[in-house]
Design the sequence.
């Protein structure tokens, strides 16, 4: 079985996940062609090699030149997806992830889900990250994804809703039931989009499973911090069975049993 392990020692964001997939072998050219199916002329995606803490990784930049909208609702993003030429499976998964983010924000801010807005280039940044990650996992033929406990950071973060504690309330809600920790770095390391993608893809959260490594990729975060601000992705083959996958069969013969 082909598996992947996200090592989130510096958290995760949508662009870091996409960068890690590219660094592990996903074709940037084919990715750009796929994103072209969204039919958004103002949209562009750039990748570049950067150093974070002395280690090399792939940085993904989503730009919307001439983009006039500062935000979009969930339904507006759905209409973009439905009008696109994306495969139905990519459309369905992307909509599920976006809806989960909007649902969490709706509960936190006590607003109808229809009034929740996606920011960052009018919501296109999250849309590109999610479409790219969903398509990338399919392209790399990854059958199962494992995720480490996630470093969420600490402190405060300034966003559209004002100044919020780290992890942001939406991020925390999305990670409910999953293992998180903070190394004490005063920075938002895990974003809502990153949390939504990790929990959508992740079948199991914990230590590295017994696996044979075939490829390793590093997705770079925006800033160069005191530690390597990277998301590490390991892709390989599952070796043997994990404890949760072991099956015990008990066989016996019974004589002289009354009908």
Sequence:
């Amino acid at each position: 079985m082909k598996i992947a392990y996200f090592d989130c020692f510096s958290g995760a964001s949508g662009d870091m996940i996409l960068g890690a997939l590219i660094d592990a072998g996903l074709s940037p050219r084919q990715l750009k062609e796929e994103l072209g199916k969204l039919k958004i002329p103002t949209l562009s995606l750039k990748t570049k090699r950067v150093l974070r803490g002395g280690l090399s990784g792939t940085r993904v930049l989503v730009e919307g030149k001439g983009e006039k909208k500062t935000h979009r609702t969930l339904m507006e993003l759905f209409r973009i997806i439905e009008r696109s030429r994306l495969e139905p499976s990519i459309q369905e998964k992307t909509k599920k992830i976006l809806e989960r983010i909007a649902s969490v924000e709706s509960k936190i801010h006590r607003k109808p889900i229809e009034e929740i807005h996606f920011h960052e280039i009018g919501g296109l940044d999250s849309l590109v990250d999610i479409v790219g990650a969903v398509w990338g996992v399919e392209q790399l033929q990854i059958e199962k994804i494992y995720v480490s406990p996630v470093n969420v950071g600490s402190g405060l973060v300034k966003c559209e809703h004002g100044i919020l504690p780290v992890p942001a309330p939406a991020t925390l809600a999305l990670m409910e039931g999953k293992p998180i920790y903070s190394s004490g770095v005063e920075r938002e390391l895990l974003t809502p989009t990153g949390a939504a993608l990790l929990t959508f893809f992740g079948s199991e959260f914990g230590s590295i499973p017994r696996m044979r490594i075939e490829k390793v990729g590093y997705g770079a975060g925006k800033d160069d911090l005191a530690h390597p601000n990277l998301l590490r992705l390991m892709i390989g083959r599952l070796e043997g069975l994990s404890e949760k996958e072991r099956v015990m069969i008990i066989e016996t013969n019974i004589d002289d049993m009354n009908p």
